[in-house]
Amino acid sequence: MAEFARRNRWLLLAVTAALTVAAAWHATAGPDRVDWLPLRTIGQDWYPVCEGTAFTRAAPYRGDGPHPIVIYGGGGPGDGASADPGKPPAAWRPTAPGRVQLVSCAEPLDGTGLGEEVARCPRYSRLSVFERSQIGTITLHRSRYLVRLLEARTGREVRRFEITGADEVCPLYAQEQAILYRSGILPSQYRAALAPYVEGPAP
Question: Most Cβ neighbours (<10 Å): which of 50, 134, 170, 198?
């Protein structure tokens, strides 16, 4: 490997420079734009917006609300979200792909985002289809998330927030391979943070 590097250092330098230029161009050029719509408004269909894709046929984010939104990330490991009484209203949900205006993307803040231990969740090993055996515990940490609110049509960032996940419910059966769990963002937390942008007039 060292001999290859000595003989081909100019080639390696050229490749490195090309990659650097490409990354810089992508950072300054903004999102990749595609002239089509995902087939659905559920699942991972709109997640590419979180990764830098703008769907130019999506509905523009303008005028009065509600502005239909697709929300990704920040889910807790257990069923805490299902029991949350403050879920976003049905008016937030897009009824067709062409009605999507906003996409919310949550990512855990590593390092400072991983907070104190709030629970010890039992860990199980599957013995059979109907039987499990507890083999230890897994720590659930209170965690912070970066939430970015993006316009689906342009990829423009409308707002960003930091939210500490309040869903601290353990899963019914913690998986054997799990290392740790993070607290999740409750639907009511999303509603409180995003309501001014979804229900109010577009800024």
Answer: 198
Q: Provide the residue count of the chain.
A: 203
Residue type, 156: R
Name the one residue in this structure whose structure tokens are 């490991």: 77
Query: Is the per-residue pLDDT at 23 higher than 70?
Result: no
Give the Cα separation of 58 and 60 in Å (integer): 6
Mean pLDDT value across residues 168-183: 83
Q: Do both 24 and 93 map to the same domain?
A: no
Q: What percent of the chain has pLDDT over 90?
A: 66
What region does 123 belong to: left with phi over 0, alpha with psi -120 to 50, or beta? beta
pLDDT band at 128 (very low <50, low <70, confident <90, very high): low
In this structure, the answer to whether residues 16 and 57 fall within a common structural domain is no
Alpha-carbon span 103 to 31, nearest angstrom? 14
